[in-house]
Amino acid sequence: MEEKGMIEVKNPSKLFLEQKVEAPGSAVVSTLTGLRPLLVEIQALVTKTNLPVPRRTGSGVDNNKLQLLAAVLQKRMGLPLFDQDVFVNVTGGLKISEPAADLGICMAIISSFKDQSIVSKTVLIGEVGLLGELRNVREIGKRSAEAKKLGYSNIVSSENAKNLSQAVKLCLTTGR
User: What is the mean pLDDT of residues 102-115?
Assistant: First the structure.
């Protein structure tokens, strides 16, 4: 909204990614708002807890979904989250409820836990099943096209990774 009224936001994805920093715990997902694809950043912070029951707190994501994905990561990936607090945030105040963001949430958590950044220019698209498998999502072509338009060349989805383990190999930097 401007002085003269409403003005069009020509590239909302760019607006949501303006302040993105390449750091452990940061992942970019392609979500749909109506029929329009939108790239947004998901941040995760995983840290040792002193509480008897670790916290799973999400801002912009459903807490039940966060609990479920943390359980999948523990069981299927062997990630020892039993003594870790997990905080997840969708930047820009956006709320994401579609399953296509599952892979991004999982990779942000894994990235933070392992203290390894996700490879630059990576977009994550996919639903994560209870078995740790990646499932197809609707409009993958539109989502990928939006990512490529903004210069993202590493698109990780069910088209090139069948499960979380394969996705990790495609998008985490080596090191530490």
Answer: 97
Distance CA 35, CA 143 (A): 10
CA-CA distances (angstroms) from residue 8 to 2, 11, 12, 37, 156? 10, 9, 10, 16, 30
pTM for this entry: 0.89
- The encoded tokens of residue 41 equal 């950043």
Mean pLDDT of the region 60-89: 96
What DSSP letter does each residue of the chain carry, written as one string? -BTTB----S-HHHHHHTT----TTEEEEEEEETTEEEEEEEEEEEEE--SSS--EEEESS-HHHHHHHHHHHHHHH----TTEEEEEEEGGG----SGGGHHHHHHHHHHHHHT-PBPTTEEE--EE-TTSBEE--TTHHHHHHHHHHTT--EEESTTT-SBHHHHHHHHBPP--
Q: Which CATH architecture has domain 21-171?
A: 2-Layer Sandwich (3.30)
